[in-house]
């Protein structure tokens, strides 16, 4: 198992569209997972890894556990600031930590956090080892982490 520093090497900003909010003008609870997914995709891009290539070879990182802690809402047209880091990588799985902040009067406020486990699924749709080139790429990216 490889463990990494608790620093976040990547930040994504997403302005909240109407399609993500409920009638109360707040991001619907399940849509936070969509925001986190988009931020993980952008994290992979920033790390220099093409997730599409992984999928083309029949592999996928499937979410098997996600624990979201809600603190305050994010609303329509606010900008969600999503930080992403890999906490650890094992042979077949990895643990990802993400959080969402928003800026209010120039100060960041924590809105929610998630800790999730991803398992590598192979071409036979069973758990398999994470490809070494993905492990190496993410380890290099995490090693360069500076708090964002």
Descriptive report:
This protein is of the alpha+beta class. It has a single domain, classed as Thiol Ester Dehydrase, Chain A (Roll), CATH 3.10.129. Helix content is 24%, strand content 39%. It has three helices and six strands; from the N terminus they run ββααββββα. It has helices at residues 31-47, 51-56, 132-143, and strands at 2-3, 10-15, 60-70, 79-89, 93-104, 107-121. Strands 1, 2, 3, 4, 5 and 6 form a six-stranded antiparallel β-sheet that branches. β5 and β6 (107-121) form a beta hairpin.
- Described by its quaternary structure, the protein is single chain
Q: What's the story with the biggest beta sheet?
A: 6 strands, antiparallel
Which structural class best describes the helix and strand composition? alpha+beta
Helix and strand run: EEHHEEEEH
What's the total helix number? 3
Q: What global shape is seen?
A: globular
Q: From the alpha-carbon coordinates, what is the Rg to the nearest angstrom?
A: 16 Å
Low-confidence stretches: none
Rounded to the nearest angstrom, the distance between the terminal CA atoms is 25 Å
Strand content: 35-45%
CATH class: Alpha Beta
The CATH architecture designation is Roll
Mean pLDDT: 95
CATH superfamily: Hotdog Thioesterase
Helix content: 10-25%
Number of strands: 6
Instruction: Supply the number of structural domains.
Output: 1
CATH structural fold name: Thiol Ester Dehydrase, Chain A
């Amino acid at each position: 198992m490889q463990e990494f520093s608790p620093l976040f090497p990547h930040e994504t900003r997403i302005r909240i569209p109407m399609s993500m909010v409920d009638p109360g003008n707040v991001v619907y609870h399940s849509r936070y997972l969509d925001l986190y997914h988009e931020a993980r995709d952008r994290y992979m891009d920033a790390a220099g890894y093409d997730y599409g290539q992984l999928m083309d070879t029949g592999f996928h990182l499937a979410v098997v556990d996600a624990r979201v802690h809600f603190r305050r809402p994010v609303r329509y047209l606010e900008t969600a600031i999503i930080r992403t880091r890999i906490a650890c990588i094992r042979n077949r799985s990895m643990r990802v930590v993400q959080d969402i902040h928003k800026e209010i009067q120039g100060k960041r406020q924590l809105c929610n956090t998630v800790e999730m486990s991803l398992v590598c699924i192979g071409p036979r749709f069973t758990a398999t080892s994470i490809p070494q080139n993905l492990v190496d790429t993410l380890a290099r990216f995490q090693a360069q982490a500076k708090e964002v």
